[in-house]
C-alpha cells in the first residue's frame, strides 16, 4: 500500500491476525463406513478381554517400502563431506526394494521388524508372525492358547482375500493356537497402534540415512526407541515370496475359519487343524 514497515512490524501484525507458517496435516478422512464406530468399540472390547486374561495382543502392518541403493531420503545426518545421491529414483538403478513388516506387542511395548526384499504377500505376513511367536511370543506368553491380531483391512492382510485366510489357517495349525483377527474399518489405518506407536520412531531413527544395503537399514531401524520403553528388534526374512498365488480349490468349504456374528467381514478366528 506504499507504507514502509519493518520486519518486526510485519511479524507483529501477522501474529495479531493469527497468520503463521504451518505444515499441512493429514486429518480429513476420505470416507466414513457406517459400521466404523461399532468396529472400534468391538476392537476395544477384544483388547480389554485378551489383556485381562493375559493373552497376547499384537498390531501388525507393513511400513513404507524403501528402495535399496544410492537413493535420496529425507532428513539430515552428520558427515564430513556432502552426500551425493542419484537425482532420480529409478528402481532399475538400485538393488531392489526393502519391505519392513512390523509386529507390535502392545502389552510389552516391544516391536519386531522383519525385513524382506521380494514381495509383500499374506505369506510374508504369516511368516513374520510365526517368527515373532517363536522368538518372543511363546516365551512371553507360555500359557497362551490364543492370539489377537489387529490389522488394516487391505494390503497383504486384506479382509476380503481368502488367500490370506488360507495362510492364516496354516499358521494357526503351525503354531497350535487360535488366531483371532480384527480388521480396522476402511480409511482408518492410521488408528492401527503400530502406525503411531512404532513407525514414527523408526522414521526418526532413519532420517537422512541412505539405505545402500539391507544391513544398513537393519542397524538404524534397531536404534529406534522411546523414553517410555519402546524397543525394536530387527530380523531378516530371506525367503522369496511369489505373487499371483490362488487359494486351493475347496478351501472355502473346508476351512476352519469361524466368522463372528457381529461384523463378520472384519472379525474372525482361525483354528488349528489336527495333523
Provide the residue-averaged pLDDT: 94
List unreliable stretches of 5+ residues: none
Largest sheet: 9 strands, mixed
Q: Percent range for helical residues?
A: 25-40%
Gross morphology is globular
Name the beta content range.
15-25%
Kindly report how far apart the N and C termini lie: 84 Å
How many H/I helical runs? 8
SS content category = alpha/beta
Task: List how many beta strands DSSP finds.
Answer: 9
How are helices and strands ordered from N to C? HHEEEEHEHEHHHEHEE
If you compute it from the alpha carbons, what radius of gyration comes out, rounded to the nearest whole angstrom?
A: 22 Å
Oligomer: single chain
List the defining traits of the structure above.
globular, 275 residues, 9-stranded mixed sheet, alpha/beta
Structure notes:
With 275 residues, this protein is an alpha/beta fold. Helix content is 31%, strand content 18%. The chain is built from eight helices and nine strands. The chain has helices at residues 7-16, 36-52, 122-140, 162-175, 193-197, 199-205, 214-221, 251-254; strands at residues 57-62, 66-67, 97-105, 110-116, 146-151, 178-183, 231-236, 257-259, 267-270. Strands 1, 2, 3, 4, 5, 6, 7, 8 and 9 form a nine-stranded mixed β-sheet that branches. A hairpin with a 7-residue loop joins strand 8 (257-259) and strand 9 (267-270). Helix 3 packs parallel to helix 4. The longest helix is centred in the middle third of the chain and has 19 residues, at 122-140. It is globular, with a radius of gyration of 22 Å. It starts with 6 loop residues before the first helix and ends in a 5-residue tail after the last strand. 28% of the residues are buried. The model has no long low-confidence stretch (mean pLDDT 94).
